[in-house]
UniProtKB/TrEMBL annotation:
This is Tachykinin family protein. Residues 1-22 are annotated as: Disordered. PANTHER family: TRANSCRIPTION FACTOR (ACR-2), PUTATIVE-RELATED-RELATED (PTHR37540), TRANSCRIPTION FACTOR DOMAIN-CONTAINING PROTEIN (PTHR37540:SF5). Coiled coil: none annotated. InterPro entries: Fun_TF (IPR021858). It comes from the Eukaryota. The lineage of its organism: Eukaryota, Fungi, Dikarya, Ascomycota, Pezizomycotina. Residues 9-18 have a biased composition (Polar residues).
Length: 493
């Protein structure tokens, strides 16, 4: 999306529009983002964004229909209403059939799936149906949260539909190892979408339309992580020119998907979200956790850092609700729970102040390091939960070592808060591979000694006083217990 780096201004969202030049990137394979230098540059870019205000409008719900694909009931002939954009797709598409074999796709019939009006090129139309069918039938064999929403939104704009078709083409191409890594068909489809979008962005009214926003969301959804930041910066600028996030409140589906994309990428980069929470779309669990004496002690000692304990209380309410339903497993495929309840708490976590900049500058204090360690442990916990919810990338690979890096670079005395130290270490260890667990076991044992406890069951009791998910991570808990007892025996010898 637009490579123009945008700042979120604290001024009114109704400020005058400014003319900006937008530039787009081509689609390539995902890049590695674990490089510390790249992560530092990303954080620096994210810090330059300032929060913008939002306006609020009365909402109403839009319902989008999708072709059922029923071979007995589908109607031949022109398509009208919400599917009229397919005519625009047909007019723009003029693809050369240089595609790999698609014999693994389900057989097509003239009336199954999408039906095109007066097709100029039967081969082209059949190919479009094949690409759509591939995605709708789960051809990539991966669970995709909110898939129906994405297909509904893709049908609302031809440029957005190009992005969807391009992604399907790229996935099909990956299933053929002898084919080039880059699908020529996918590149052509992406290029058509970019060309269409570039023209519309220069138009005062069309440049901030729902169609443009939908297309940018499609790019952010399907593109790689590195360019996600570019797409969202461009989207934030478009929404600002439009009049603020409140102008999207009339379309719940666009607002909800924007929230999903914003949270997903921001979590990977551990940056503040671009947009505020759509409170009217979010729900909360009924039960509310009670602050433990441990958290009360922290608030009394460091009242200026009580934001982290406020979050831990809300997180404990959410995780307790999840843990009660973890074994039956239905909750792990509940898209609406993830998007409306779980992501609301994730947004709260990502909105917490970060002390990374001060730590990098060498400005440290024990309480700052401890608070940052708790925040990072929460990030790791929610990465584990995102993985449980099949939200990929979950953030595990990006964040699993963040606590160890912090505590190794900035060792502090946790006296008076060894219980919080223990919670941070145990929570983090749930995400650590077995061959790298020894450092954590040594630290956990040391924190336990400070508390005067020696058994794993006592460790679990301390965990329960902050936040604990014994059912959700039961297998991992049993394994950590074995590691802890083994390390204790070795240490005594």
């Amino acid at each position: 999306m637009p490579t123009k780096r945008t700042k979120r201004s604290g001024s009114s969202v109704t400020s005058e529009q400014t003319t900006k030049t937008h530039e787009f990137v081509t689609i390539m394979n995902p890049n590695e983002i674990r490089d510390p230098l790249k992560q530092k540059l990303i954080r620096q870019h994210a810090r330059r964004r300032e929060d913008s205000n939002s306006t609020f409008r009365k909402t109403f719900k839009l319902v989008f229909d999708l072709p059922s694909g029923d071979t007995q009931t589908a109607v031949e002939g022109p398509i009208t209403g919400s599917h009229s954009m397919l005519s625009a797709v047909r007019e723009h598409l003029d693809l050369t059939p240089f595609v790999p074999s698609i014999q693994f796709l389900r057989p097509l019939t003239p009336v199954r799936g999408l039906v095109f009006a007066s097709p100029h090129s039967p081969e082209m139309d059949i190919r479009v149906v094949q690409l759509v069918d591939f995605m709708r039938s789960g051809g990539d064999k991966k669970f995709c949260p909110l898939m129906d929403f994405w297909w509904n939104i893709a049908q609302l704009d031809s440029a957005a539909f190009f992005v969807t078709l391009a992604h399907a083409s790229r996935l099909i191409n990956k299933q053929h190892p002898n084919e080039p890594k880059q699908s020529s068909e996918a590149v052509e489809l992406y290029t058509k979408s970019i060309q269409c979008l570039q023209k519309r962005l220069q138009m005062p009214k069309e440049g901030t339309s729902d169609g443009v926003i939908i297309t940018i969301l499609e790019f952010a959804y399907y593109d790689d992580l590195v360019r996600w930041l570019v797409h969202m910066s461009g989207l934030a600028e478009v929404v600002k020119r439009r009049g603020g996030i409140g102008t999207l409140y009339s379309s719940e589906i666009i607002l909800l998907l924007n929230f999903w994309i914003d949270i997903s990428g921001s979590f990977i980069f551990d940056i503040a979200p671009f947009f505020p929470r759509p409170h009217h779309l979010l729900t909360q669990v009924a039960s509310k956790a009670v602050p433990s004496t441990i958290l009360q002690r922290w608030n009394a000692k460091f009242p200026e850092l009580s934001d982290i304990t406020t979050f831990l209380i809300d997180a404990a309410s959410l995780t307790s609700y999840i843990d009660e339903r973890a074994i039956e497993g239905v909750i792990w495929k509940d898209d609406m729970f993830v998007s409306r309840t779980f992501n609301g708490v994730v947004h709260q976590l990502l909105s917490l102040q970060r002390d990374t900049e001060a730590l990098e500058a060498g400005i440290t204090s024990p309480q700052i390091v401890m608070r940052e360690a708790m925040r990072r442990a929460c990030i790791i916990l929610f990465a584990l939960l995102r993985d449980k919810f099949s939200v990929h990338p979950s953030g595990m690979s990006q964040h699993s070592n963040s606590v160890k890096e912090l505590l190794s670079q900035h060792p502090v005395d946790w006296s008076g808060f060894s219980d919080l130290h223990l919670w941070v270490l145990v929570t983090t260890s749930f995400a650590i591979e077995d061959d790298k667990i020894s450092w954590y076991m040594d630290e956990i044992r040391g924190a336990a000694v400070q508390l005067g406890i020696s058994g794993w069951n006592d460790v679990v009791e301390v965990m329960k006083s902050v936040l604990w998910m014994g059912k959700t991570f039961r297998t991992r808990n049993d394994l950590l217990k074995d590691f802890f007892e083994l390390s204790t025996v070795i240490n005594e010898v």
